[in-house]
Each structure stands twice: as structure tokens, then as C-alpha cells.
Amino acid sequence: MNQVQIEAKSKTYGVYIDAGIRHQVGDLIQDVVTEPISSVLVITDSTVEPLYLQDVVASFQDVDIYTEVIKSGEASKSFSVYEQVLTKALESSLDRKSLIVALGGGVVGDLAGFVAATYMRGIRFVQVPTTLLAHDSSVGGKVAINHPLGKNMIGSFHQPEAVFYDTEALSSLPDKEWRSGFAEVIKHGFIQDENFLVWLQGINKVKEIPLDQLSTLLKRSISVKAKIVQEDEQESGVRAYLNFGHTLGHAIESELGYGAITHGEAVVIGMVFALRVSEEVNQVDLNVTQYEQWFNELGYQTKVPMSCDKKSLISKMKQDKKAEAKSIKLVLLNRVGDPILMKVPPTIIEKILVERMEVESVG
Ligand SMILES: NC(=O)c1ccc[n+]([C@@H]2O[C@H](COP(=O)([O-])OP(=O)(O)OC[C@H]3O[C@@H](n4cnc5c(N)ncnc54)[C@H](O)[C@@H]3O)[C@@H](O)[C@H]2O)c1
Ligand SMILES: O=C(O)C(=O)C[C@@H](O)[C@H](O)[C@H](O)COP(=O)(O)O
Ligand SMILES: [Zn+2]
């Protein structure tokens, strides 16, 4: 089993990575928690339910266990689904010694984590990620739901008791979701680990990564995040670097309607934009053309979709959580592995956005 230790200010916990670990969640959690668990609510989505829910439920013995299945997809990070899950928690008489299990991708993790953060002002939860992307979302304690006007706008910091990452579960992931998750892996390379990024560039079919390399990749990518979260749990400084590509990425997700584009696909468009802005602001050559070509070979779209409105994207970027007094702040790169958070002049934002917008082909 691979393990990465997360030493956040509010809590230290392990990310345990192993094939088939979902069958052991109920046992392993006993070694992690200090106080007994009174009851368990497993939250999952409609795609993951038939695949893995029973395995996780069966791993718990001698405890009352309840389950709640939400509709799969980004649209479930909403007020109404949040209320639905809270209602289930109340109907199941969860108390302050209960445990929530988030079984699924980042949508389930963010939503279930936010329920855990707010139910009775906070109860314990564990993450059981089932997507590649969730190597990022399950670690670090950011939990949230979306508002129609902005991504992750209602949320909290609430660390899990542990993360049990089953690499076997990734075998059922569709190509699109591999690609979405790989975007966050690449992001971790860009912001902190140039050698890792170079190694990743040797991969041209994400889904075909051999299992031993996959564990290495997960461990290395999670380690980048762990180091940053350890230094700055609540994003008063360096944690903002994890937002590389997200200012425009989140604006695109919200502009297109949640779920129209995957989170990772939107982040890729945002990373290329941020790289171009970095070149413009810092007057450096970051080889953007080469990275864009690699992204395209991997199957990512790198231009801002035509149906996005430029003004609306700019206004959404001004409402991003990093913005101050309506001025847009972006995570830029001085060079790979050397990020910086900067207020960017509106003229540069506008110029590069126009350059990055998809144009209708003629004929
Ligand atoms: N909290 C954080 O730090 C953080 C970090 C990154 C992303 N996020 C959030 O994570 C969310 C995206 O997460 P995601 O990409 O995992 O999306 P997701 O949870 O919607 O999962 C993607 C799709 O794959 C399906 N699925 C999940 N596991 C599967 C499996 N093993 N086999 C087959 N299908 C499976 C899901 O039902 C869904 O349709 C976004 O809301 C994003 O904002 C949060
Ligand atoms: O953990 C973080 O910090 C991140 O920024 C990781 C991101 O990949 C993730 O998408 C996160 O949810 C974005 O956070 P937000 O504060 O911009 O909503
Ligand atoms: Zn992200």
C-alpha cells in the first residue's frame, strides 16, 4: 500500500492508496479514529452506486449504516441536493459521533464534505475517491457547493479523517474522466515539480498508464498538494498556487452551465490562458505552443469555447475567490515550478482572452 501523510494545521491524516481498498474501509477506519463511530452515512452518486457501494457498505460491521445516492454530475453540487442529503442525515438520526463516507468523485467528495462540515456544526467524514481527479479533491479539506453565479462559492475547510483511494475503481472510468483528472496532475507539475511535468509529457494516452506507474503518479501528485496544504491550510498564501488555471476555468464552467464541460477540461483552457498571460506580464517565453500541442494530442480543447461571452467571463473572473476589490488576480508562472499570484491589468486580460477565444471556421 502507498501512503501520503497530510499534515494540515487542523488535522493530520493519511491518504492510503491501494487496489481493492474499498473492501476494507470499515476496518481501516477503526485504526484511524480515536472515538467510536455511532452510525455511518455513505453518500455516493447514481453511476458509482451499482459499481462500488455494496463493497463499501459490506466493509462495515456492527454499526448502523445508511446510504444516500445523488444524481451523478456537477449539477448535484447544488443547494437542493445539499438539502436532500442533510434531510437524509436527520432522518437517519446521525449524531455527533456519526461518520459520513464520501464514495465517488469530486462532486460527491465536495458535497458530502460540506454536509459533514455543517451538519450539527461539523461531524467526521472520510473520502473514498473513485475518479482520477479526486486525488486532488479528496485531499486538503476544501468542501463546497456551487451557486449559479459562481463555482464553489458556498463552502468551508473541513479535513477528512482519512482518504482511502482504490486504484481498482479507476478501471471503470470513461476516457473523458481520465482526461479531466489528468489535468490536475499536470497542474501539480506546472506549479511545483518540473521533473514530474517532464515525466508526464512522456504519457500520450492517459488511460493506458500501467498500474505501477499510476500509483507513482498519484503519490507524486498528491505529495505536491500535501506540501502546499501543510504550509497554508486555509489559503492565505501559497495555497492559491493550487488554483493555477482555475480563474478562467471556473468562469467557463459557470458560463457554460455546470456539467457542460468537465472541471479538468476547463482547467486546461485556463492553464494555457494563464501561461500566455505569464508570458505577456513577465516578458518571458514559456513554450506555450509546445504545451498546447501536447494538450491537443492528449485530446484536450485548449481554446475558450465559442459559446462563451467575453464580458461575462471577465465579470465572473472578477468574482473569483482570489479577487480583491473587483480586480482579477491570476496564478502565473515565472517559469515551470515557480508560481506567483498577481493582480493582472485588465488590458492584458482582455488581450489574451481575445487571443484564446475559439473562432468559427469559415467554409
Ligand atoms: N475540493 C477540492 O480541492 C477540489 C479539487 C479539484 C476538483 N474539485 C471538484 O471536483 C469536482 C469534479 O470531480 P470529478 O471529476 O471526480 O467529477 P464527478 O464526481 O462528477 O465524477 C465524474 C463522473 O464520473 C463518474 N464516476 C465516478 N467514479 C467512477 C468510476 N470509478 N467509474 C465510472 N464512473 C465514475 C461520476 O458519476 C461522474 O459522472 C468539481 O466539482 C470540482 O470543482 C474539488
Ligand atoms: O485545493 C485547492 O486549494 C485547490 O485550489 C484545488 C483545485 O483543484 C480545486 O478545484 C478547488 O476546489 C478550487 O478551489 P476554489 O477555492 O477556487 O473554489
Ligand atoms: Zn481543480
Describe the structure.
Belongs to the sugar phosphate cyclases superfamily. Dehydroquinate synthase family. Catalyzes the conversion of 3-deoxy-D-arabino-heptulosonate 7-phosphate (DAHP) to dehydroquinate (DHQ). Keywords: Amino-acid biosynthesis, Aromatic amino acid biosynthesis, Cobalt, Cytoplasm, Lyase, Metal-binding, NAD, Nucleotide-binding, Zinc. The chain has 363 residues and is α/β, with parallel strands linked by helices. A four-stranded parallel beta sheet has the order 4-3-5-6, with helices on both faces. The protein has a three-stranded mixed beta sheet with strand order 1-2-9, covered by helices on one side. The chain has a two-stranded antiparallel sheet with strand order 7-8. It folds into two domains: 2-170, Rossmann fold, CATH 3.40.50; 194-357, Up-down Bundle (Dehydroquinate synthase-like, alpha domain), CATH 1.20.1090.10. It starts with a strand and ends in a 7-residue tail after the last helix. The model has no long low-confidence stretch (mean pLDDT 96). Helices cover 43% and strands 19% of the residues. The chain binds nicotinamide-adenine-dinucleotide, the ligand O=C(O)C(=O)C[C@@H](O)[C@H](O)[C@H](O)COP(=O)(O)O and zinc ion. Zinc ion binds at residues 136, 184, 246, 263, 267.
Shape annotation: globular
- Strand tally, please? 11
What's the main sheet like?
4 strands, parallel
Q: Which value, in Å, is the CA radius of gyration?
A: 20 Å
Strand order in the sheet with the most strands = 4-3-5-6
CATH architecture of the largest domain: 3-Layer(aba) Sandwich
Total count of helical runs of at least 4 residues? 13
CATH structural class of the largest domain: Alpha Beta
Beta-strand proportion: 15-25%
CATH topology of the largest domain: Rossmann fold
